[in-house]
Amino acid sequence: MGIVFKQSAKNVLSTFLGFGIGAFNTLFLYVNFMSDAYYGLVGFLLSTAMILMPFLSFGVQNTIIKFYSSFQGEARDKFLLWMLFLPLFIIVPATLLSVVFQKQIVVFISSKNESFGDYFWYIFIIAVSIAYFEVFFAWSKVHLKSSFGNLMKEVFHRLATMCLLVLLGTELITIAFFLKALVGVYVLRMLIMKGYAYYLHMPKIVWSTSPRGKDYWLPSRFGAILKYTSLIIIAGSVATLLLDLDKFMIGKYKLVENIAYYNVAIYIATVIAIPVRAMHQITYPMVAQLLNEKNYSEIAILYKKSSISLLVISSFLFLLIVTNLQSLYQLIDPTYATGIYVVILIGFARVLDNILGINNAILYNSDYYRLVLFLGVILVLVAIGLNMYFIPRYGIKGAAIATFMASVLYSVSKIAIVYWKFKMSPISVKTAGMLGIAFCFLLLFYFFEFGFHPIINMLLKSTAITILFIPTIYSLNISEDINVAIKSILKRT
């Protein structure tokens, strides 16, 4: 776990940098340089593209990670080459269907906002670009080179968007040009990631046996590979739908401006997901290899350690965000303050996600991923029903309630499956202790305000929480890896 912690730290830095730039874009540039309607439109385009992405990628990014370590030599080259072509089996038919049924699709997605139909192909191009970006990112992950890919995934498009927003704010470009350029940013990001993946390992055409043999064209175990990648589409879709379904459905039931208000709140809460996202970049290929080696004892240790470390970090972020919400929204347009309760609900759901640790890596790389797929489909249907009920009645607060309920059910279910099949659990006495500590800090600081300027209030409150929180965690030895990291920092100072 120490190795994972050190490697994850590099990804955490780039992820935090990306989220910092994204926060500046989301909370200030979009709010001040773009109307609520167009801001909501951008949120809808990106969310819809993210929902399409798992289908268009054909689950290849997960397939590469699961099967790569089981191949050797030329067999790896044949496997990787096929991974480049598999998404086209979905993308090409999807393109043809979109051309034929474009009007019907537009009517379905834009019942409340007719302007969505004008940007139909923007959604599709962004979705394809993200899909192939993830394929090339997985290509680099299996070579244990995730830092550059994580930088591209978290920083590049946000930095480019920031530049475009500044140009828009200074009226050097129009909103129409901005939207076209935004599509170009995702295409360019995909092409750069492709170049880096090929730099690490150039794809090669490899033949084997005789031209009459079935293995001449196909990699070994191709049936198992195709079965996995077909089913894993559902898993990827479930995860994405639970993240972006709410914004899509707000666009169906409410005016587009509501997506802008919801998007700000969701972005604030999503910062809490940074630790688990960063750790997954390195743990997915590692867990896949450990499963292939049947090294379950090492996985069990990694499971518990990753869970408690992520819980400590995410709880700290949750406290910093939630206790400063009142001051933060004073700095933003007051119209957006309706999202305060959205931040709290979704933020707590993200803390619970962190408790899972490497749970997703275990499930998606094991033979029990089918259970997750079945469960995920049920929960997506539940989430759709919850959104259909709550959004028309409570607006963006209803979307947050629906997402919170679906996310918690999904997290609890995945913990139960791993315990059932592997007899492993991430939860311990320390988990309960950490949640208790976080709750005490929340009660202590949420209702307390210094009464100064919002920025000064946030600085003072954040400093007070940090000064009290870190020594408390260290003295109670909640996480061994975090204590080691703290000792290492103290030795350098």
Q: How many DSSP H or I helices?
A: 21
Strand content: under 5%
What is the structural class? mainly alpha
Number of DSSP strands? 0
**Spatial gap, N to C terminus:** 24 Å
What is the average per-residue confidence, as pLDDT, rounded to a whole number?
82
Low-confidence stretches: 209-213
Biggest sheet architecture: none
- The shape is globular
Secondary-structure element series: HHHHHHHHHHHHHHHHHHHHH
Write the layout of secondary structure elements.
Layout: H1 2-33, H2 36-57, H3 60-67, H4 74-85, H5 88-100, H6 102-109, H7 120-141, H8 147-169, H9 175-200, H10 222-253, H11 257-270, H12 274-292, H13 296-322, H14 325-331, H15 340-355, H16 359-364, H17 369-394, H18 396-422, H19 429-445, H20 454-476, H21 480-492
Walk me through the structure.
- The protein is mainly α and 493 residues long.
- It has one domain.
- Helices cover 80% and strands 0% of the residues.
- It has 21 helices and no strands.
- It has helices at residues 2-33, 36-57, 60-67, 74-85, 88-100, 102-109, 120-141, 147-169, 175-200, 222-253, 257-270, 274-292, 296-322, 325-331, 340-355, 359-364, 369-394, 396-422, 429-445, 454-476, 480-492.
- Helix 8 packs antiparallel against helix 9, helix 10 packs across helix 11 and helix 14 packs antiparallel against helix 20 (454-476).
- The longest helix is centred in the N-terminal third of the chain and has 32 residues, at 2-33.
- It is globular, with a radius of gyration of 23 Å.
- Residues 209-213 have low confidence and may be disordered.
